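step=encode ok
step=design start
structure_in=
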Protein backbone atom coordinates (compact mmCIF):
# COMPACT_ATOMS: atom_id res chain seq x y z
CA UNK A 1 0.00 0.00 0.00
CA UNK A 2 1.13 3.54 -0.76
CA UNK A 3 2.54 5.30 2.27
CA UNK A 4 -0.07 8.03 1.99
CA UNK A 5 -2.81 5.49 2.67
CA UNK A 6 -1.70 5.10 6.27
CA UNK A 7 -1.94 8.79 7.11
CA UNK A 8 -4.31 10.00 9.78
CA UNK A 9 -7.78 10.62 8.40
CA UNK A 10 -7.58 14.31 9.25
CA UNK A 11 -4.54 15.04 7.10
CA UNK A 12 -3.73 15.86 3.54
CA UNK A 13 -0.39 15.27 1.91
CA UNK A 14 1.66 17.87 0.10
CA UNK A 15 5.16 17.74 -1.31
CA UNK A 16 7.28 16.86 1.68
CA UNK A 17 4.66 17.89 4.19
CA UNK A 18 1.68 16.53 6.10
CA UNK A 19 -0.79 18.96 7.63
CA UNK A 20 -4.30 18.81 9.07
CA UNK A 21 -7.17 19.40 6.67
CA UNK A 22 -7.96 23.08 6.48
CA UNK A 23 -4.57 24.18 7.77
CA UNK A 24 -2.93 27.08 5.90
CA UNK A 25 -0.65 26.09 3.06
CA UNK A 26 2.04 28.24 1.53
CA UNK A 27 1.37 28.81 -2.19
CA UNK A 28 3.59 26.85 -4.53
CA UNK A 29 5.93 29.48 -5.89
CA UNK A 30 6.88 27.99 -9.23
CA UNK A 31 5.20 26.28 -12.11
CA UNK A 32 1.99 26.70 -13.96
CA UNK A 33 -0.15 29.08 -11.94
CA UNK A 34 -1.85 31.91 -13.70
CA UNK A 35 0.76 34.51 -12.99
CA UNK A 36 -1.38 37.37 -14.31
CA UNK A 37 -0.91 40.80 -12.85
CA UNK A 38 -4.64 41.39 -13.03
CA UNK A 39 -5.62 37.79 -12.53
CA UNK A 40 -7.48 37.91 -9.25
CA UNK A 41 -11.18 38.34 -9.75
CA UNK A 42 -11.09 37.90 -13.50
CA UNK A 43 -13.88 35.88 -15.02
CA UNK A 44 -11.45 33.88 -17.08
CA UNK A 45 -7.73 33.53 -17.42
CA UNK A 46 -5.82 33.99 -20.64
CA UNK A 47 -8.62 35.87 -22.36
CA UNK A 48 -6.63 38.98 -23.28
CA UNK A 49 -5.50 39.65 -26.81
CA UNK A 50 -1.83 39.17 -26.04
CA UNK A 51 0.64 38.24 -23.32
CA UNK A 52 0.30 41.60 -21.59
CA UNK A 53 -0.76 40.19 -18.24
CA UNK A 54 1.04 36.85 -18.06
CA UNK A 55 4.48 35.41 -18.76
CA UNK A 56 5.17 34.70 -22.43
CA UNK A 57 5.64 30.97 -21.86
CA UNK A 58 2.20 30.75 -20.24
CA UNK A 59 0.56 32.78 -22.99
CA UNK A 60 2.09 30.50 -25.62
CA UNK A 61 0.39 27.54 -23.94
CA UNK A 62 -3.08 29.07 -23.64
CA UNK A 63 -3.51 31.47 -26.56
CA UNK A 64 -5.00 28.86 -28.89
CA UNK A 65 -6.37 26.44 -26.33
CA UNK A 66 -10.18 26.74 -26.35
CA UNK A 67 -10.59 25.43 -22.79
CA UNK A 68 -7.89 27.57 -21.21
CA UNK A 69 -8.79 30.83 -22.95
CA UNK A 70 -12.36 32.13 -23.10
CA UNK A 71 -11.50 34.24 -26.14
CA UNK A 72 -9.70 31.42 -27.97
CA UNK A 73 -12.74 29.15 -27.78
CA UNK A 74 -14.44 31.31 -30.41
CA UNK A 75 -11.65 30.60 -32.88
CA UNK A 76 -9.98 27.26 -32.14
CA UNK A 77 -11.34 23.72 -31.95
CA UNK A 78 -10.58 20.71 -29.81
CA UNK A 79 -11.28 17.00 -29.99
CA UNK A 80 -11.42 14.11 -27.55
CA UNK A 81 -10.61 10.50 -28.37
CA UNK A 82 -12.30 7.70 -26.46
CA UNK A 83 -9.38 5.37 -25.78
CA UNK A 84 -9.78 5.12 -21.99
CA UNK A 85 -12.89 3.09 -21.05
CA UNK A 86 -11.84 1.87 -17.59
CA UNK A 87 -12.23 3.90 -14.40
CA UNK A 88 -10.71 3.46 -10.95
CA UNK A 89 -13.39 5.30 -8.98
CA UNK A 90 -17.17 5.47 -8.94
CA UNK A 91 -18.91 8.85 -8.89
CA UNK A 92 -22.58 9.19 -7.98
CA UNK A 93 -23.06 11.62 -10.88
CA UNK A 94 -21.51 9.43 -13.60
CA UNK A 95 -22.92 6.76 -15.88
CA UNK A 96 -20.70 5.89 -18.83
CA UNK A 97 -22.31 4.97 -22.13
CA UNK A 98 -20.13 3.48 -24.84
CA UNK A 99 -22.48 3.28 -27.82
CA UNK A 100 -24.59 6.41 -27.39
CA UNK A 101 -24.88 9.01 -30.15
CA UNK A 102 -27.74 11.14 -28.84
CA UNK A 103 -26.49 12.49 -25.52
CA UNK A 104 -23.89 15.19 -25.03
CA UNK A 105 -22.32 14.96 -21.59
CA UNK A 106 -19.11 13.62 -20.03
CA UNK A 107 -18.69 9.86 -20.06
CA UNK A 108 -20.65 9.33 -23.29
CA UNK A 109 -19.17 8.07 -26.57
CA UNK A 110 -20.41 6.52 -29.77
CA UNK A 111 -17.34 4.35 -30.41
CA UNK A 112 -14.44 3.20 -28.26
CA UNK A 113 -11.13 3.48 -30.11
CA UNK A 114 -7.79 1.75 -30.08
CA UNK A 115 -4.78 4.08 -29.99
CA UNK A 116 -4.17 3.38 -33.68
CA UNK A 117 -7.76 4.23 -34.58
CA UNK A 118 -7.59 7.35 -32.42
CA UNK A 119 -4.47 8.67 -34.16
CA UNK A 120 -6.02 8.07 -37.59
CA UNK A 121 -9.14 9.93 -36.47
CA UNK A 122 -7.09 12.86 -35.16
CA UNK A 123 -5.23 13.18 -38.45
CA UNK A 124 -8.52 13.07 -40.36
CA UNK A 125 -10.09 15.77 -38.17
CA UNK A 126 -6.99 17.97 -38.19
CA UNK A 127 -6.89 17.77 -42.00
CA UNK A 128 -10.53 18.84 -42.30
CA UNK A 129 -10.55 21.30 -39.39
CA UNK A 130 -7.18 23.11 -39.49
CA UNK A 131 -8.10 25.27 -36.49
CA UNK A 132 -8.23 22.11 -34.36
CA UNK A 133 -5.28 22.72 -32.03
CA UNK A 134 -5.92 20.48 -29.04
CA UNK A 135 -6.29 16.72 -28.54
CA UNK A 136 -7.51 15.41 -25.20
CA UNK A 137 -8.14 12.03 -23.63
CA UNK A 138 -11.15 12.51 -21.37
CA UNK A 139 -12.44 8.97 -21.02
CA UNK A 140 -15.08 7.74 -21.24
CA UNK A 141 -13.45 6.35 -18.08
CA UNK A 142 -10.28 7.87 -16.64
CA UNK A 143 -7.28 8.60 -18.83
CA UNK A 144 -4.78 7.52 -16.17
CA UNK A 145 -6.67 4.36 -15.24
CA UNK A 146 -5.82 3.36 -18.83
CA UNK A 147 -2.23 4.63 -18.98
CA UNK A 148 -0.92 2.39 -21.76
CA UNK A 149 -3.74 3.26 -24.16
CA UNK A 150 -3.52 6.94 -23.29
CA UNK A 151 0.24 7.29 -23.65
CA UNK A 152 0.45 5.03 -26.71
CA UNK A 153 -2.01 7.42 -28.37
CA UNK A 154 0.09 10.44 -27.42
CA UNK A 155 3.35 8.79 -28.49
CA UNK A 156 2.07 7.97 -31.97
CA UNK A 157 0.39 11.34 -32.33
CA UNK A 158 3.55 13.24 -31.44
CA UNK A 159 5.29 11.46 -34.30
CA UNK A 160 2.51 12.19 -36.80
CA UNK A 161 1.18 15.60 -35.69
CA UNK A 162 3.73 17.40 -33.52
CA UNK A 163 1.88 20.72 -33.64
CA UNK A 164 -1.20 19.53 -31.73
CA UNK A 165 -1.37 20.29 -28.01
CA UNK A 166 -1.95 17.27 -25.78
CA UNK A 167 -4.30 17.21 -22.78
CA UNK A 168 -5.63 14.68 -20.33
CA UNK A 169 -8.53 14.70 -17.89
CA UNK A 170 -8.30 12.62 -14.75
CA UNK A 171 -9.85 12.09 -11.34
CA UNK A 172 -6.33 12.27 -9.90
CA UNK A 173 -6.18 8.93 -8.10
CA UNK A 174 -3.34 7.58 -10.26
CA UNK A 175 -1.89 11.00 -11.07
CA UNK A 176 1.14 11.17 -8.73
CA UNK A 177 2.53 7.92 -10.13
CA UNK A 178 2.33 9.17 -13.72
CA UNK A 179 3.53 12.78 -13.55
CA UNK A 180 6.90 11.82 -15.04
CA UNK A 181 5.15 10.07 -17.93
CA UNK A 182 2.95 13.13 -18.49
CA UNK A 183 6.00 15.37 -18.72
CA UNK A 184 7.81 12.86 -20.97
CA UNK A 185 5.17 13.41 -23.65
CA UNK A 186 5.14 17.21 -23.22
CA UNK A 187 1.54 17.23 -22.01
CA UNK A 188 1.19 20.86 -20.96
CA UNK A 189 -2.46 20.78 -19.84
CA UNK A 190 -4.06 18.48 -17.27
CA UNK A 191 -7.61 18.69 -15.96
CA UNK A 192 -8.29 17.18 -12.54
CA UNK A 193 -11.83 16.70 -11.28
CA UNK A 194 -11.78 17.79 -7.62
CA UNK A 195 -15.16 17.99 -5.92
CA UNK A 196 -14.02 18.18 -2.30
CA UNK A 197 -11.11 18.79 0.03
CA UNK A 198 -12.90 17.21 3.00
CA UNK A 199 -13.40 13.43 2.91
CA UNK A 200 -16.63 13.84 4.91
CA UNK A 201 -18.01 15.62 1.86
CA UNK A 202 -16.30 13.25 -0.53
CA UNK A 203 -17.89 10.10 0.84
CA UNK A 204 -21.28 11.48 -0.23
CA UNK A 205 -20.02 11.75 -3.81
CA UNK A 206 -17.80 8.68 -4.26
CA UNK A 207 -19.13 5.23 -3.24
CA UNK A 208 -15.77 3.56 -3.84
CA UNK A 209 -12.31 3.75 -5.36
CA UNK A 210 -10.11 0.92 -6.62
CA UNK A 211 -6.82 1.38 -4.84
CA UNK A 212 -3.90 -0.91 -4.00
CA UNK A 213 -5.59 -3.82 -5.83
CA UNK A 214 -8.80 -3.64 -3.82
CA UNK A 215 -12.02 -1.70 -3.57
CA UNK A 216 -12.07 0.91 -0.79
CA UNK A 217 -15.33 2.54 0.30
CA UNK A 218 -16.70 5.38 2.40
CA UNK A 219 -14.65 8.00 4.21
CA UNK A 220 -11.41 6.09 3.69
CA UNK A 221 -11.92 6.07 -0.08
CA UNK A 222 -12.57 9.81 -0.13
CA UNK A 223 -9.53 10.48 2.07
CA UNK A 224 -7.17 8.56 -0.19
CA UNK A 225 -8.59 10.22 -3.28
CA UNK A 226 -8.26 13.68 -1.75
CA UNK A 227 -4.64 13.11 -0.72
CA UNK A 228 -3.69 11.80 -4.16
CA UNK A 229 -5.41 14.73 -5.89
CA UNK A 230 -3.59 17.32 -3.81
CA UNK A 231 -0.24 15.60 -4.24
CA UNK A 232 -0.72 15.26 -7.98
CA UNK A 233 -1.72 18.90 -8.37
CA UNK A 234 1.34 20.09 -6.48
CA UNK A 235 3.63 17.81 -8.50
CA UNK A 236 2.23 19.12 -11.79
CA UNK A 237 2.61 22.72 -10.65
CA UNK A 238 6.21 22.08 -9.65
CA UNK A 239 6.87 20.71 -13.15
CA UNK A 240 5.30 23.69 -14.92
CA UNK A 241 2.23 21.85 -16.22
CA UNK A 242 -0.93 23.99 -16.46
CA UNK A 243 -3.81 22.53 -14.49
CA UNK A 244 -7.52 23.11 -14.75
CA UNK A 245 -9.72 21.94 -11.89
CA UNK A 246 -13.21 20.71 -12.72
CA UNK A 247 -15.74 20.68 -9.88
CA UNK A 248 -19.32 19.47 -10.12
CA UNK A 249 -21.68 21.63 -8.05
CA UNK A 250 -24.06 19.35 -6.13
CA UNK A 251 -26.65 21.32 -4.13
CA UNK A 252 -26.78 20.38 -0.46
CA UNK A 253 -23.55 18.38 -0.67
CA UNK A 254 -20.64 20.53 -1.87
CA UNK A 255 -22.13 23.84 -2.98
CA UNK A 256 -20.73 25.95 -0.13
CA UNK A 257 -17.71 23.65 0.17
CA UNK A 258 -16.53 24.51 -3.36
CA UNK A 259 -15.40 27.91 -2.08
CA UNK A 260 -12.87 26.06 0.09
CA UNK A 261 -11.94 23.84 -2.87
CA UNK A 262 -11.22 26.98 -4.87
CA UNK A 263 -8.93 28.35 -2.16
CA UNK A 264 -7.02 25.09 -1.77
CA UNK A 265 -6.41 24.48 -5.45
CA UNK A 266 -5.25 28.07 -5.93
CA UNK A 267 -2.68 27.57 -3.15
CA UNK A 268 -1.34 24.61 -5.06
CA UNK A 269 -0.95 26.48 -8.33
CA UNK A 270 -4.10 25.60 -10.27
CA UNK A 271 -4.41 27.73 -13.40
CA UNK A 272 -8.20 27.61 -13.77
CA UNK A 273 -11.21 26.42 -11.77
CA UNK A 274 -14.25 25.25 -13.70
CA UNK A 275 -17.38 24.92 -11.53
CA UNK A 276 -20.00 22.95 -13.48
CA UNK A 277 -23.64 22.15 -12.74
CA UNK A 278 -24.58 18.61 -11.76
CA UNK A 279 -26.33 16.70 -14.54
CA UNK A 280 -28.84 14.52 -12.71
CA UNK A 281 -31.81 13.66 -14.88
CA UNK A 282 -33.13 10.20 -14.03
CA UNK A 283 -32.91 9.06 -17.66
CA UNK A 284 -29.12 9.34 -17.53
CA UNK A 285 -29.10 6.48 -15.03
CA UNK A 286 -26.73 7.94 -12.45
CA UNK A 287 -27.06 7.30 -8.72
CA UNK A 288 -27.87 10.94 -8.10
CA UNK A 289 -30.38 10.92 -10.93
CA UNK A 290 -32.15 7.83 -9.64
CA UNK A 291 -32.22 9.07 -6.03
CA UNK A 292 -33.63 12.50 -6.90
CA UNK A 293 -30.56 14.64 -6.24
CA UNK A 294 -31.27 17.84 -8.15
CA UNK A 295 -28.84 20.00 -10.06
CA UNK A 296 -28.32 23.69 -9.27
CA UNK A 297 -30.42 26.51 -10.64
CA UNK A 298 -28.74 29.22 -12.68
CA UNK A 299 -28.64 31.59 -9.70
CA UNK A 300 -27.17 28.92 -7.42
CA UNK A 301 -24.39 28.16 -9.90
CA UNK A 302 -23.58 31.82 -10.45
CA UNK A 303 -23.63 32.54 -6.72
CA UNK A 304 -20.97 29.91 -6.05
CA UNK A 305 -18.88 31.06 -8.99
CA UNK A 306 -19.14 34.67 -7.85
CA UNK A 307 -18.17 33.69 -4.31
CA UNK A 308 -14.95 32.21 -5.73
CA UNK A 309 -13.92 35.41 -7.51
CA UNK A 310 -10.53 36.41 -6.18
CA UNK A 311 -9.47 32.80 -5.74
CA UNK A 312 -8.34 30.58 -8.58
CA UNK A 313 -9.31 32.08 -11.92
CA UNK A 314 -12.67 30.84 -13.13
CA UNK A 315 -13.60 29.16 -16.38
CA UNK A 316 -17.22 29.83 -17.30
CA UNK A 317 -17.38 28.71 -20.93
CA UNK A 318 -17.27 24.93 -20.36
CA UNK A 319 -19.82 22.88 -22.34
CA UNK A 320 -19.41 19.60 -20.36
CA UNK A 321 -18.35 17.81 -23.53
CA UNK A 322 -18.75 14.19 -24.59
CA UNK A 323 -15.65 12.01 -24.36
CA UNK A 324 -15.52 11.95 -28.18
CA UNK A 325 -16.36 15.61 -28.89
CA UNK A 326 -15.04 17.23 -32.07
CA UNK A 327 -15.07 20.87 -33.12
CA UNK A 328 -15.47 24.26 -31.50
CA UNK A 329 -16.81 24.37 -27.96
CA UNK A 330 -20.56 24.43 -28.21
CA UNK A 331 -20.65 22.31 -31.37
CA UNK A 332 -20.18 18.59 -31.87
CA UNK A 333 -19.01 17.30 -35.25
CA UNK A 334 -18.14 13.80 -34.07
CA UNK A 335 -20.75 12.24 -36.37
CA UNK A 336 -18.75 13.51 -39.35
CA UNK A 337 -15.74 11.45 -38.28
CA UNK A 338 -16.99 7.98 -37.42
CA UNK A 339 -14.62 5.11 -38.22
CA UNK A 340 -16.50 4.08 -41.32
CA UNK A 341 -16.45 7.65 -42.70
CA UNK A 342 -12.74 8.02 -41.94
CA UNK A 343 -12.01 4.90 -43.97
CA UNK A 344 -13.43 6.64 -47.03
CA UNK A 345 -11.42 9.83 -46.52
CA UNK A 346 -8.18 10.74 -48.23
CA UNK A 347 -6.17 11.98 -45.27
CA UNK A 348 -3.39 14.43 -46.04
CA UNK A 349 -1.87 15.99 -42.93
CA UNK A 350 -0.20 19.15 -44.20
CA UNK A 351 1.61 20.84 -41.33
CA UNK A 352 2.48 23.96 -43.34
CA UNK A 353 -1.12 24.36 -44.51
CA UNK A 354 -2.40 24.04 -40.94
CA UNK A 355 0.08 26.62 -39.69
CA UNK A 356 -0.81 29.04 -42.48
CA UNK A 357 -4.51 28.69 -41.72
CA UNK A 358 -3.97 29.21 -37.99
CA UNK A 359 -1.83 32.28 -38.68
CA UNK A 360 -4.77 33.78 -40.55
CA UNK A 361 -7.13 32.84 -37.71
CA UNK A 362 -4.81 34.58 -35.26
CA UNK A 363 -4.61 37.71 -37.43
CA UNK A 364 -8.40 37.82 -37.61
CA UNK A 365 -8.66 37.25 -33.88
CA UNK A 366 -6.26 40.07 -33.04
CA UNK A 367 -8.06 42.46 -35.41
CA UNK A 368 -11.38 41.58 -33.84
CA UNK A 369 -9.94 41.98 -30.36
CA UNK A 370 -8.61 45.45 -31.17
CA UNK A 371 -11.93 46.48 -32.73
CA UNK A 372 -13.81 45.12 -29.74
CA UNK A 373 -11.68 47.11 -27.29
CA UNK A 374 -12.26 50.27 -29.32
CA UNK A 375 -16.01 49.63 -29.47
CA UNK A 376 -16.08 48.90 -25.74
CA UNK A 377 -14.37 52.18 -24.87
CA UNK A 378 -16.77 54.05 -27.17
CA UNK A 379 -19.78 52.47 -25.46
CA UNK A 380 -18.44 53.33 -22.00
CA UNK A 381 -17.87 56.94 -23.03
CA UNK A 382 -21.53 57.23 -24.06
CA UNK A 383 -22.83 55.61 -20.88
CA UNK A 384 -23.75 58.84 -19.10
CA UNK A 385 -25.21 58.88 -15.60
CA UNK A 386 -26.44 55.41 -14.66
CA UNK A 387 -27.05 53.56 -11.44
CA UNK A 388 -23.47 52.75 -10.33
CA UNK A 389 -24.39 49.58 -8.44
CA UNK A 390 -26.95 48.14 -10.86
CA UNK A 391 -26.10 44.84 -12.55
CA UNK A 392 -28.35 42.90 -14.90
CA UNK A 393 -27.99 39.78 -17.02
CA UNK A 394 -28.52 39.75 -20.76
CA UNK A 395 -28.65 36.76 -23.08
CA UNK A 396 -26.90 36.94 -26.46
CA UNK A 397 -27.52 34.93 -29.62
CA UNK A 398 -24.16 34.52 -31.33
CA UNK A 399 -22.53 32.16 -33.78
CA UNK A 400 -19.06 33.34 -32.83
CA UNK A 401 -16.50 36.07 -33.50
CA UNK A 402 -17.74 37.97 -30.45
CA UNK A 403 -20.73 39.52 -32.21
CA UNK A 404 -24.52 39.57 -31.92
CA UNK A 405 -24.93 37.68 -35.17
CA UNK A 406 -27.49 34.89 -34.77
CA UNK A 407 -31.24 34.71 -35.36
CA UNK A 408 -33.18 33.93 -32.18
CA UNK A 409 -34.75 30.89 -33.80
CA UNK A 410 -31.40 29.42 -34.80
CA UNK A 411 -29.84 29.48 -31.33
CA UNK A 412 -29.11 26.24 -29.50
CA UNK A 413 -27.47 28.19 -26.69
CA UNK A 414 -27.28 31.75 -25.42
CA UNK A 415 -24.22 33.40 -23.97
CA UNK A 416 -24.95 35.22 -20.72
CA UNK A 417 -23.34 38.55 -19.84
CA UNK A 418 -23.56 40.49 -16.59
CA UNK A 419 -23.81 44.17 -17.52
CA UNK A 420 -23.13 47.20 -15.37
CA UNK A 421 -21.96 50.75 -15.97
CA UNK A 422 -18.37 49.50 -15.83
CA UNK A 423 -18.36 46.40 -18.02
CA UNK A 424 -20.14 43.60 -19.83
CA UNK A 425 -18.77 40.44 -18.27
CA UNK A 426 -19.22 36.97 -19.76
CA UNK A 427 -20.58 34.73 -17.00
CA UNK A 428 -21.81 31.59 -18.74
CA UNK A 429 -24.05 30.04 -21.33
CA UNK A 430 -27.43 28.32 -21.45
CA UNK A 431 -28.31 25.49 -23.80
CA UNK A 432 -31.82 25.67 -25.25
CA UNK A 433 -34.08 23.76 -27.61
CA UNK A 434 -33.89 24.89 -31.22
CA UNK A 435 -36.91 27.09 -32.00
CA UNK A 436 -36.77 27.12 -35.81
CA UNK A 437 -36.97 23.60 -37.22
CA UNK A 438 -37.53 22.96 -40.89
CA UNK A 439 -38.04 26.65 -41.55
CA UNK A 440 -40.89 27.05 -39.05
CA UNK A 441 -40.99 28.13 -35.43
CA UNK A 442 -41.89 25.43 -32.95
CA UNK A 443 -44.01 27.36 -30.46
CA UNK A 444 -44.01 24.50 -27.96
CA UNK A 445 -40.25 25.07 -27.54
CA UNK A 446 -40.70 28.67 -26.38
CA UNK A 447 -41.52 27.96 -22.72
CA UNK A 448 -38.31 25.98 -22.23
CA UNK A 449 -36.27 28.74 -23.91
CA UNK A 450 -37.85 31.39 -21.69
CA UNK A 451 -37.10 29.28 -18.60
CA UNK A 452 -33.45 29.03 -19.64
CA UNK A 453 -32.98 32.82 -19.77
CA UNK A 454 -35.63 33.84 -17.24
CA UNK A 455 -33.04 35.66 -15.09
CA UNK A 456 -32.12 37.96 -17.99
CA UNK A 457 -33.58 41.40 -18.57
CA UNK A 458 -32.95 41.31 -22.32
CA UNK A 459 -31.93 39.01 -25.14
CA UNK A 460 -29.76 40.46 -27.91
CA UNK A 461 -30.31 38.87 -31.31
CA UNK A 462 -29.58 39.54 -34.98
CA UNK A 463 -33.24 38.98 -35.81
CA UNK A 464 -36.38 37.64 -34.14
CA UNK A 465 -39.89 36.73 -35.27
CA UNK A 466 -43.13 38.21 -33.99
CA UNK A 467 -44.27 35.20 -31.96
CA UNK A 468 -41.13 34.73 -29.85
CA UNK A 469 -40.86 38.52 -29.51
CA UNK A 470 -44.32 38.66 -27.96
CA UNK A 471 -43.65 35.62 -25.76
CA UNK A 472 -40.44 37.13 -24.39
CA UNK A 473 -42.08 40.49 -23.71
CA UNK A 474 -44.90 38.75 -21.85
CA UNK A 475 -42.28 37.05 -19.69
CA UNK A 476 -40.58 40.38 -18.93
CA UNK A 477 -37.55 39.77 -21.17
CA UNK A 478 -36.84 42.52 -23.68
CA UNK A 479 -36.03 41.24 -27.20
CA UNK A 480 -33.44 43.51 -28.85
CA UNK A 481 -32.38 43.36 -32.50
CA UNK A 482 -31.15 46.95 -32.75
CA UNK A 483 -27.50 45.91 -32.34
CA UNK A 484 -27.31 43.17 -34.96
CA UNK A 485 -23.70 42.29 -35.88
CA UNK A 486 -22.23 44.66 -33.27
CA UNK A 487 -19.58 43.36 -30.88
CA UNK A 488 -21.34 41.82 -27.90
CA UNK A 489 -19.81 44.01 -25.22
CA UNK A 490 -20.55 47.22 -27.09
CA UNK A 491 -24.11 46.09 -27.81
CA UNK A 492 -24.72 45.07 -24.19
CA UNK A 493 -23.37 48.35 -22.78
CA UNK A 494 -25.32 50.40 -25.33
CA UNK A 495 -28.52 48.59 -24.41
CA UNK A 496 -27.76 49.06 -20.71
CA UNK A 497 -27.25 52.82 -21.15
CA UNK A 498 -30.58 53.04 -22.93
CA UNK A 499 -32.26 50.86 -20.31
CA UNK A 500 -31.05 52.92 -17.37
CA UNK A 501 -31.94 56.10 -19.26
CA UNK A 502 -35.52 54.90 -19.61
CA UNK A 503 -35.57 54.15 -15.89
CA UNK A 504 -34.27 57.65 -15.07
CA UNK A 505 -36.92 59.23 -17.27
CA UNK A 506 -39.65 57.25 -15.55
CA UNK A 507 -40.60 55.38 -18.72
CA UNK A 508 -40.07 51.98 -17.12
CA UNK A 509 -39.50 50.55 -13.66
CA UNK A 510 -36.59 48.25 -13.00
CA UNK A 511 -37.81 44.89 -11.75
CA UNK A 512 -35.63 42.07 -10.39
CA UNK A 513 -35.77 38.92 -12.50
CA UNK A 514 -36.47 35.39 -11.33
CA UNK A 515 -34.23 32.36 -11.53
CA UNK A 516 -33.51 30.30 -14.64
CA UNK A 517 -33.26 26.61 -15.44
CA UNK A 518 -30.01 24.95 -16.46
CA UNK A 519 -30.63 22.38 -19.15
CA UNK A 520 -29.85 18.95 -17.76
CA UNK A 521 -27.37 17.43 -20.15
CA UNK A 522 -27.83 18.05 -23.85
CA UNK A 523 -28.89 16.09 -26.86
CA UNK A 524 -27.17 16.30 -30.20
CA UNK A 525 -28.83 17.78 -33.26
CA UNK A 526 -29.24 14.29 -34.71
CA UNK A 527 -31.32 13.20 -31.74
CA UNK A 528 -33.36 16.41 -31.79
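sequence_out=
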Amino acid sequence: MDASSSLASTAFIGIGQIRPLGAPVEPVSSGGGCGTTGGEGKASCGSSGGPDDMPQEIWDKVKNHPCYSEEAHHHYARMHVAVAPACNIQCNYCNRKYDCSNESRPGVVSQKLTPEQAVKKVLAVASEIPQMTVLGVAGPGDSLANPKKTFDTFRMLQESAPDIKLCISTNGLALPDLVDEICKYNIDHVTITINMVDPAVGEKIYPWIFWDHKRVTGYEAARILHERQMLGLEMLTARGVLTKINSVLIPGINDEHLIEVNREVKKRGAFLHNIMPLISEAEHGTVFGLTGQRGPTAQELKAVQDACMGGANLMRHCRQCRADAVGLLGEDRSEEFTLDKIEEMEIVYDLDKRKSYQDKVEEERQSQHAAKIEALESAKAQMGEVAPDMKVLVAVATEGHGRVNLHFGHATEFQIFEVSAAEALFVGHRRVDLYCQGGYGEDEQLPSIVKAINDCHAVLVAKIGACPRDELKAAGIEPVDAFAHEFIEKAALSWFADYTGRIARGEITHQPRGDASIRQGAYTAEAA
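step=design ok
step=annotate ok -> The longest strand covers residues 242-249.
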